[in-house]
């Protein structure tokens, strides 16, 4: 990629979701948000689900989702990547968020993730494991059987598992009171 700041939404995103991502991501980024994931569900009247984060790291709120929805809807109407009628849903990624970008994996080192692979690792395509580290090539993880490495490109889908530790880590930090 020419721009190192621009990340692929997910290493295995293809087809319609990849086309929609290419169409809407510049708008989302221009508004001050980051695209976390796109999913297209259904056939008769597909639902386009968009998960986003605020680029400044603050929590996303309903007004943010509305702003994204209004702008993305207009861009999709002009570019028309889905024939016929469709529904748009915009939300935050939430606490038990999908892990789609390298920075997500790095941010949640030490937390439990449910991982689905395109090719088996240690004889499995699905696993729950604690994230140990991640770079653009490899995610290192650990489960009850031990430590292992997952090629980043082989991750089909992954998301954090809601645990007490994740909830505590995601809770807003109290601000020190001024004296």
Can you tell me about this structure?
The chain contains four helices and eight strands. The protein has two domains: 15-92, 2-Layer Sandwich (GMP Synthetase, Chain A, domain 3), CATH 3.30.300.70; 102-170, Roll (SH3 type barrels). Helix 1 crosses helix 2 (62-79). Strand 4 and strand 5 (124-134) form a beta hairpin. It is of the alpha+beta class. It has helices at residues 15-30, 62-79, 102-107, 164-170; strands at residues 33-41, 47-54, 87-92, 112-121, 124-134, 138-143, 146-151, 155-160. Mean pLDDT is 88; it is low at 1-12.
Sum up the structure in keywords:
three-stranded mixed β-sheet, 179 residues, 35% strand, disordered N terminus, SH3 type barrels, GMP Synthetase, Chain A, domain 3, 26% helix, alpha+beta, five-stranded antiparallel β-sheet, 4 helices
